[in-house]
Design goal:
This protein is of the alpha+beta class and about 375 residues long. It folds into three domains: about 120 residues, no CATH class; about 120 residues, Alpha-Beta Plaits (2-Layer Sandwich), CATH 3.30.70; about 70 residues, no CATH class. The protein has 15 helices and nine strands. Helix 2 crosses helix 4, helix 5 packs parallel to helix 10 and helix 13 runs antiparallel to helix 14. The longest helix is centred in the last third of the chain and has 27 residues. The chain is globular.
Length: about 375
């Protein structure tokens, strides 16, 4: 049974949501302002939610360019607190109930590495069943996914699962907080949950109607492995028919290719060998992106714009990800590149010290 809406404006839950919101952001002005009057701000927000007076505010917009150009819309600290309280206590627990196992994105106990391990297990199972790596892959993603989600259909899907009228009203207000009738903000916590649900119909259709066992999805990125190329062509056609009424279409890069070629999924290129071994390597784009970052970090460190700790934390995040593949040589190589950033800085400091102008009557390297 769904929890009552009271859990959203429970003071303890709102305070926990505030703490989650400020994590890693205490230096930001907006967070600092709330921190000056935390209890008062949460009390006011509690009353707004309880009395049905809360309305989502406007968004701050900016672009990110890695791995591709995307518009990010982020909300205020107040709205982030509400979304944490709502998503953590009602939205995610309720909307995730009908999710299939092979819907991997932004879920407790799942995520990137869970999805990679499921792909590995599917490939191993396929080899045991067919005795070879002969087969086909349909690899697809949805074009402009978040920007194409229809508000009316999303609200219908959500409200089939939410039963408390106040939960429905808050969800509707969040969905309609962006102008127009299409698109939800990538930066919202709620958008991650909504995006998982919006393709839930596709998940069940592929698994239960098309009977495709070797299927996995991370947000709008999905694959199907099958022994028949013709069956995948038919699946492609039917998937497009299913998505069209929801305002979605597949990216032009969608294709069918031999299983033995391997596939790019969740930052790795995973392939099945003729002996049944599954190999997982970091994608070239991920390697290139990290190399560019390290070059930029070297300049920023030299100029004092980044600390050693910040660089090492960023690199360790990528290194941890890469360690989930057969990437020992690559990691060793990039470890050396990262270490050289600090070695070069030490050498340049020594060189600068040695080139310090001497005073009149003072020999180089000697002080009175």
């Amino acid at each position: 049974m769904e929890q009552n809406f009271e859990v959203v404006y429970d003071f303890a839950n709102l305070y926990a949501a505030y703490r989650a919101t400020r994590k890693g952001k205490r230096w930001k002005d907006a967070v600092a302002k709330v921190e000056l009057n935390t209890l008062e701000a949460i009390t006011v927000l509690q009353a707004e939610l309880r009395d049905g007076l809360y309305k989502p505010g406007n968004y701050h917009e900016f672009y990110v360019f890695e791995p591709k150009r995307r518009l990010i819309q982020t909300n205020s600290v107040k709205d982030k607190i509400v979304q944490h309280a709502f998503c953590d206590n009602i939205l995610y627990p309720v909307l995730s109930r009908p999710f299939i196992l092979d819907n991997y994105g932004s879920q407790v106990g799942k995520g990137t590495h869970f999805g990679l391990d499921r792909l590995r297990d599917f490939m191993r199972e396929y080899y045991r069943k067919h005795g070879s790596a002969d087969g086909w892959v349909l690899k697809a993603d949805v074009r402009h996914y978040f920007a194409s989600i229809r508000h009316d259909i999303l609200k219908r899907d959500v409200n089939k699962l939410l039963t408390d009228p106040r939960s429905r009203a808050l969800s509707d207000a969040i969905i309609d907080s962006t102008p127009g009738n299409v698109g939800i903000p990538i930066g919202n916590q709620s958008s991650q949950v909504y995006a998982l649900l919006y393709l839930n119909e596709l998940d069940h259709y592929v698994k239960e109607v098309l009977r495709m066992r070797y299927y996995g999805r991370y947000m709008d990125d999905f694959y199907i492995i099958c022994e028949s190329k013709e069956a995948l062509r038919e699946a492609w056609r039917k998937v497009e028919q299913l998505l069209a009424p929801r305002g979605l279409e597949l990216n032009q890069k969608t294709q069918i290719f031999p299983l033995r070629n391997g596939l790019d999924f969740l930052g790795f290129h995973t392939y099945l060998t003729d002996t049944g071994k599954v190999i997982r390597k970091v994608r070239r784009s991920s390697k290139d992106r990290m190399r560019r970052k390290l070059r930029k970090y070297a300049v920023m460190y030299e100029n004092g714009a980044m600390t050693r700790k910040q660089i090492e934390e960023s690199y360790q995040s990528w290194r941890s990800h890469a360690s989930h593949g057969q990437c020992r040589e690559l990691i060793t190589k990039y470890d050396a590149v990262c270490a050289s950033i600090f070695e070069r800085s030490v050498k340049s400091n020594h060189a600068a010290e040695n080139q310090r102008p001497t005073r009149k009557g003072e020999s180089a390297g000697h002080k009175d």
